[in-house]
Amino acid sequence: MVHLKIATSIYQSQVADLLPCNNSCKSSLTFALLRSYGLLELFDEVIETSSCTGAELKQFHSKDYVNLLLDPKLNASLDWESKKDLWNHFAESANHWLKDNEENPLTLWHTSKRELYEEFPNSSKSTTEQKTSKFARWGQLLADSEEEGENSLDDVSFDGDAYEKALEEHGLLYDCHVFSYLPLYCQVTTGATLALAKNLKRSDQRSISINWDGGRHHALKSKANGFCYVNDIVLLIQRARRQGLQRITYIDFDLHHGDGVERAFRYSTNVQTISLHLYEQGFFPGTGSTDDAKSGKNVFNIPLRHGLDDKYLSELTERVVVPCASRNEPELVVIQCGGDGLIGDKYKEWQLSIKGLTKSIMRIVDQFSHAHIVLLGGGGYNERVMSRFYTYLTWSVVEKFSNHYAPANPFLGVDDVMPDHEFIDLYKDEFYKFWFYDLEGTSKKSLKNNNTPDYIDQLCELYNI
């Protein structure tokens, strides 16, 4: 028996879509598609609302950085952002569809960000914390009081030079600029990941847990980086370690190197990091070479070239990833399921299919049958591709492990059309077909695979496989 849980809801997806690189809809499209296929009903536990405190974020991130992220002044619509944007438009369109097509819609989408914030759980309380001793609670109260008194922003003007300098120092400009309701975003999406860690050690039952809004692998201890503000992966692994899990393996399938996670655990013998990523001159973040791996205690980097395809990834997974991970004998495997290497993504660097990437991820889930599994999201910059990918990957998990009756596979036909739902019109140009990006003559184009067969042999030799 496997306990299946997922953190997702209308509320969480709308908060996640406050992140600028989500283009106001990445998470919402995913949630709506999951719901339209009836997949949420196949989970044992659906976590709809989660949050975390500043104190929890400071278990990895620096105090000054967290104070900056959670500045209450940012829980508002910022002057330089449009008061009426695509985020509102998508919500209003979804509600129109629901009202026209459902007699009594159970839930509607929030049509204002302020409304979303007003439903935020009391930020002084965490929905993810475990019970603690009396002495630990006293220590927490004292720590919270001290942090409030020492908040470095209290004497800084919101528009002043000192504030601008603080933003620059902590990476909160350019690709990681502050945005409306940034504190809300950080606390809800990180809380969703941390909620997955609850009772991992206490239960003898294997669990497979999902948060497609997590996986922010670039965030550093004191700095935002690569569209990532809080490193929920590091915080999750730290919490699992505190629960008593000794051996943890992290595997990263994103197009970009999982630099933030690797850096956090570079010298750990208990936490293993494995990252498959594009490694070419000038490509962000510029780290992740095999030489970098040599400087760590339990680090395995698999730098790759342009054009990676399903067959090559499958062989890499079988011959390199699985043997390296098996060496660690993990009790918990955390998998970052970035989809920016998929066909149809705006990067156009790799040519992985949804089925191909899913197959490699599920190979790991199946291999470590006695380990807890946490599946997290990641990169992916075509929202309609990502909603399909996370829906198919979710189906692959529940179809195999759900304790509830699963309907017939809805993804067998190449011409399968998506169920009608509130965002169906966004797929109109793709003829509503689930496998649109896999069809010849549409957006599927062959790239030259610059990864050579002998390179896998070299990796095996390097890592003594």
Automatic annotation (TrEMBL):
The protein depicted here goes by the name: histone deacetylase
Query: What Gene3D superfamilies does the entry give?
Result: Histone deacetylase domain
Q: Which keywords are on file for this protein?
A: Chromatin regulator, Hydrolase, Nucleus, Repressor, Transcription, Transcription regulation
Q: Which GO terms describe its cellular component?
A: nucleus
Pfam families for this protein:
Hist_deacetyl
PANTHER family assigned to the protein according to its UniProt record, in alphabetical order: HISTONE DEACETYLASE 8, HISTONE DEACETYLASE HDAC1-RELATED
Could you say which protein family the record assigns here?
Belongs to the histone deacetylase family. HD type 1 subfamily.
Q: Where is the Histone deacetylase domain?
A: 28-395
Compartments, as annotated in UniProt:
Nucleus
Record's keyword annotation contains Transmembrane helix = no
